Structure formats: C-alpha cells, structure tokens
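Exercise 7. Given the encoded structure of a 87-residue chain, write a plausible sequence.
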C-alpha cells in the first residue's frame, strides 16, 4: 500500500501530530485525508519534492563535459577496488 504524506493547512494552529508532516498508509482507491486523525483540523497532502528534483538539469550537470569544466574528476569503478580516471 502506498504511503502518503500530509501536513496541516495551518501548521501554526495544528497539533504536534500534523504540525510536521506525517505519513498515512492508504490504498489508491481511498479518498485522501482532509482532517488530522488526532485533532481534526484540515490537512493537505504534501507533494513530494523528490520527484520534482529529478530533472534533466541534474543529468546534464553530471555529464562528463560539465564535470571537466568544473574541475571535477570522475572515477569509474572497474571492480576489485580499482578506479579508472575518465575525465
Ligand atoms: Zn492534528
């Protein structure tokens, strides 16, 4: 079952449970929570920032050319504890 993160709409007037993000296990078919199970105040589903961060720009930032330009060295693990310098 997937886990969803919720947080109080108004964290300043929330109980300790929903002031911070809390996780709720729900099936996909279940309605999203609208109220905190502890205090009954309105909560909203928190959008995971992890999904947003995985963008194309991260990939190109880690390209060989860009690493070289920035003065980084990329090491490739050849196995057996040996590393090969590729940039
Ligand atoms: Zn609460």
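Solution.
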């Amino acid at each position: 079952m997937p886990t969803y993160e919720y947080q109080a709409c108004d964290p300043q007037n929330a109980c300790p449970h929903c002031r911070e993000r809390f996780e709720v296990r729900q099936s996909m078919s279940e309605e999203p929570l609208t109220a905190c199970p502890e205090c009954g105040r309105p909560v909203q589903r928190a959008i995971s920032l992890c999904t947003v961060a995985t963008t194309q720009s991260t990939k190109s930032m880690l390209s060989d050319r860009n690493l070289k330009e920035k003065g980084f060295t990329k090491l490739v693990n050849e196995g057996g504890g040996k590393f090969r310098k590729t940039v």
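Remark. The pocket of zinc ion is lined by residues 14-15, 17-18, 36, 38-39, 41 (CB under 6 Å). Students should compare their own answers with the one above.
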